[in-house]
Amino acid sequence: MASCLKRLASIRTLSSITGLVRSKSHTRLVENLLAPRLASATTSSDCFSVGERASKHYSTGPGTTVHLECALNSRLQNDGEVDHRDYLRWGNGGGTFHKSASIDPSAFVEIGAVVHSECAVGAECRIGCGAIIGPTVTIGQSTKIGYNVALANCMVGDFCVIHSGVCIGQDGFGFFVDEQGNMVKKPQKLNVRIENHVEIGANTCIDRGSWRDTVVGEHTKIDNLVQIGHNVVIGRSCIICGQVGVAGSVTIGDYVTFGGRVGIRDHVNIASKVRLAANSCVTKDISEPGDYGGFPAIPIRDWRRQIAMHRQSLKSTNSLA
């Protein structure tokens, strides 16, 4: 056994590993070496290497098949020992995945990415380097996850794009003062649901729900540096520009547009087909479609009149002085 381990440790290239696995003289030797500690990957089909599907597989039980080359790579990168948390190397991209994760064989998990336990990754997904897919996360087909994305407690739909640095599913900012005057955290136990064809810009944060799921409707587009609080529900086909802040428990209708740096107070309801000018702040419900602006946000014509009247008064004051 010791001589076999030394021989495997001396292998440096993937091509030489493939040649060893496919060699008739060494196949039985490799199977005997891997069999006692080979961990199975519960995936929809076999793990495979980029550009070429291997011809030799090792089965550890009903419905659990692992490609020998993928398992061998996992053993070698840990000096011949299987990781005690049952993490393996994904052949298509070199990322790390838990054996209980369900990953479609066409999904590309880049080296440095980690897919945790009981996750589901759909067909043709691409997960970028440094991304962390937390436990029980579901990602739909053809979704692209950028570099250093952190997903937890969420479901992501089909054909979504999540750019680098996005954090989805962390606890919301919810606290209350107890009888002793201490600040106590409110439980944040629910999820985030990202529907189909959503695009989320870099470094945006979306909090998980506390009394209802946080939802982003389909075809909604979110810019960089946006904060969406817990329990927020956003309708379909909305546009949210950069540096927008949406406080907790806000309900937003369909086809809503927020200009840059718009602020929304908590527990506010905004009707469908509302457009908010940049730097506006919504402090109460908006029940009618239309354009709004200002602080507090009012119908855009009224806001423009206020600005004009303010300028007129300033001119009058300056002329009198």
From TrEMBL:
* Name by which UniProt lists this protein: UDP-3-O-acylglucosamine N-acyltransferase 2, mitochondrial
Checking InterPro entries in the record gives: Hexapep, LpxD, Trimer_LpxA-like_sf
Alphabetical keyword list: Acyltransferase, Lipid A biosynthesis, Lipid biosynthesis, Lipid metabolism, Transferase
Keyword Lipid metabolism assigned to the entry: answer is: yes
What GO MF terms are annotated? Answer: N-acyltransferase activity; UDP-3-O-[(3R)-3-hydroxyacyl]-glucosamine N-acyltransferase activity
**Can you list the GO cellular component terms from the UniProt entry?**
membrane; mitochondrion
Q: Among the record's GO biological process terms, what is one? A: lipid A biosynthetic process
